[in-house]
């Protein structure tokens, strides 16, 4: 799909997508770098444990973290998994380590949110317990339940995109047109978690997609890529094909107030320096303003 097919949608949908972004529980300013709530998606460190992911996020200079379901808790407890089924004791251990390292948990996903309310509440209760800003999912079939709980819990939900699947046309999440059609007319706390790396590998230009999604961006998995193909891999921000500076400029223009996660899916065993370079890019971006 060419980005040209996306832009006309933006022209006709601007008013419809201009939903309020004045949420009642924003991420605190002391969690921000260069004006953005910036840190790591724990998936960046999926070869390690939750406790190590917190350590590595702090080492990279991040101030916030986004967890994902199923990561092992710690090196000495590899069989204990951290997700919305975690015990009170496990959650308390993670909260204590976050406090020790000065990191704030802000998001959780990509996680399946069931359509049945009882199952969905487990995810939202977990998010509330951790004081999260948002949840990231691809569970579009659960949109009615999600909207009900978003209103009740005042927690945002962002629909995430993965790569276009040439052999699976039923997978539509890669296309922001489709995601916008899902959230159209829904509560303003429901929108997109923009994974710019997957957009690039799907043949889309991330900056154009960011412009299209104005008013509906909940969070980002911000990535720069070495090339625009399904074989692309992550590189430090500002060294690849994505216009990271342009994206940050556009987010500022939109008064974006969600979280940006470094989700660095490359150099898995030694990528703290790569994540630090990404965060450093934002520091340099702000200094040049």
Number of helices: 10
What is the H/E string? HEEHEEEHEHEHEHEHHEEEHEH
Question: If you compute it from the alpha carbons, what radius of gyration comes out, rounded to the nearest whole angstrom?
Answer: 18 Å
- What strand order characterises the main sheet? 2-3-6-7-8-9-10-13
Number of domains: 1
Helix content: 25-40%
What structural class is derived from the secondary structure elements? alpha/beta
- Could you say which overall geometry the principal axes of the C-alpha atoms support? globular
Query: What is the arithmetic mean of pLDDT?
Result: 92
CATH superfamily: Divalent-metal-dependent TIM barrel enzymes
Tell me about the largest β-sheet. 8 strands, parallel, barrel
